[in-house]
Amino acid sequence: MTAAFATIAFNGRDNSVEGEVEEFHAITRLIVFARESAALLDADQTVYCLNLALEQIATELRHRADNSSEMTPYFKDGINRQ
Length: 82
Description:
mainly alpha; 68% helix; 0% strand; disordered C terminus
Protein backbone atom coordinates (compact mmCIF):
# COMPACT_ATOMS: atom_id res chain seq x y z
CA MET A 1 0.00 0.00 0.00
CA THR A 2 1.44 3.36 -0.99
CA ALA A 3 1.47 6.40 1.25
CA ALA A 4 -1.18 8.04 -0.90
CA PHE A 5 -3.65 5.23 -0.22
CA ALA A 6 -2.73 5.09 3.46
CA THR A 7 -3.62 8.75 3.96
CA ILE A 8 -6.95 8.81 2.13
CA ALA A 9 -8.89 8.54 5.39
CA PHE A 10 -7.34 11.78 6.67
CA ASN A 11 -7.95 13.80 3.49
CA GLY A 12 -11.71 13.85 3.97
CA ARG A 13 -11.58 15.56 7.36
CA ASP A 14 -12.20 19.20 7.95
CA ASN A 15 -9.40 21.33 9.35
CA SER A 16 -10.81 21.41 12.86
CA VAL A 17 -8.51 21.46 15.85
CA GLU A 18 -9.82 18.05 16.91
CA GLY A 19 -8.99 16.60 13.50
CA GLU A 20 -5.48 18.08 13.57
CA VAL A 21 -4.80 16.74 17.05
CA GLU A 22 -6.06 13.29 16.02
CA GLU A 23 -3.72 13.29 13.02
CA PHE A 24 -0.76 14.31 15.19
CA HIS A 25 -1.62 11.49 17.60
CA ALA A 26 -1.66 9.01 14.71
CA ILE A 27 1.73 10.23 13.49
CA THR A 28 3.09 10.03 17.02
CA ARG A 29 1.92 6.43 17.42
CA LEU A 30 3.65 5.49 14.16
CA ILE A 31 6.90 7.13 15.23
CA VAL A 32 6.80 5.52 18.67
CA PHE A 33 6.26 2.11 17.08
CA ALA A 34 9.17 2.68 14.68
CA ARG A 35 11.39 3.91 17.54
CA GLU A 36 10.65 0.82 19.65
CA SER A 37 11.37 -1.45 16.67
CA ALA A 38 14.63 0.39 15.97
CA ALA A 39 15.64 0.07 19.62
CA LEU A 40 15.11 -3.70 19.46
CA LEU A 41 17.42 -3.77 16.43
CA ASP A 42 20.05 -1.65 18.25
CA ALA A 43 19.76 1.01 15.55
CA ASP A 44 20.91 3.86 17.76
CA GLN A 45 21.07 6.53 15.04
CA THR A 46 17.54 5.70 13.95
CA VAL A 47 16.28 5.85 17.53
CA TYR A 48 17.98 9.24 17.89
CA CYS A 49 16.32 10.59 14.73
CA LEU A 50 12.91 9.29 15.75
CA ASN A 51 13.33 10.93 19.16
CA LEU A 52 14.01 14.20 17.33
CA ALA A 53 10.84 13.68 15.31
CA LEU A 54 8.82 13.18 18.50
CA GLU A 55 10.31 16.33 20.01
CA GLN A 56 9.41 18.25 16.86
CA ILE A 57 5.80 17.07 17.05
CA ALA A 58 5.61 18.25 20.66
CA THR A 59 7.09 21.61 19.62
CA GLU A 60 4.59 21.93 16.77
CA LEU A 61 1.67 21.17 19.08
CA ARG A 62 2.92 23.72 21.63
CA HIS A 63 3.29 26.31 18.85
CA ARG A 64 -0.23 25.63 17.61
CA ALA A 65 -1.58 25.80 21.18
CA ASP A 66 0.06 29.20 21.61
CA ASN A 67 -1.76 30.39 18.49
CA SER A 68 -5.09 28.72 19.28
CA SER A 69 -6.78 28.57 22.63
CA GLU A 70 -8.95 25.74 21.21
CA MET A 71 -5.99 23.33 21.20
CA THR A 72 -4.84 23.80 24.82
CA PRO A 73 -7.35 21.30 26.31
CA TYR A 74 -5.81 18.52 24.20
CA PHE A 75 -2.51 18.67 26.09
CA LYS A 76 -2.05 16.05 28.73
CA ASP A 77 -0.34 16.74 32.07
CA GLY A 78 2.81 15.03 30.83
CA ILE A 79 3.46 17.67 28.17
CA ASN A 80 5.06 20.72 29.68
CA ARG A 81 5.48 24.00 27.92
CA GLN A 82 9.09 25.05 27.48
